[in-house]
Amino acid sequence: MTDSEPARIVEEARRVIDEIDLAILVLLNRRAEQVRRIGTAKRVLGEPVYQPDREERIFDRVVGANTGPLEDAALRRLFERILDESRRLERMS
């Protein structure tokens, strides 16, 4: 391995990460649009925003599909943040 190879690896990996970050952004915003639709429908139906059973099913599904390298606990923490923001959006819908 030459001295410049690690620097090239870092540069390439960062470029790929930047692309992935933009893809995540698009998917999060798609998800948020659906959350807003749900929030509007829940208001009409008189359903509560917070539905812990549904959230546990989301956690179970995501953790069950996990193949790593992220640990299950890390995924749960990430999705807790996503769901926190989702509840906020539902309340605003």
Q: Please, could you describe this protein's structure?
A:
This protein has three helices and no strands. The chain starts with a helix and ends with a helix. The longest helix is centred in the N-terminal third of the chain and has 42 residues, at 4-45. It has one domain (4-92): Chorismate Mutase Domain, subunit A (Up-down Bundle), CATH 1.20.59.10. The mean pLDDT is 96. 3% of the residues are buried. 83% of the residues lie in helices and 0% in strands. It has 93 residues and is an all-alpha fold. The chain has helices spanning 4-45, 52-65, 72-92.
Short description:
This protein has 93 residues and is mostly helical. It has helices spanning 4-45, 52-65, 72-92. It has a single domain (4-92), classed as Chorismate Mutase Domain, subunit A (Up-down Bundle), CATH 1.20.59.
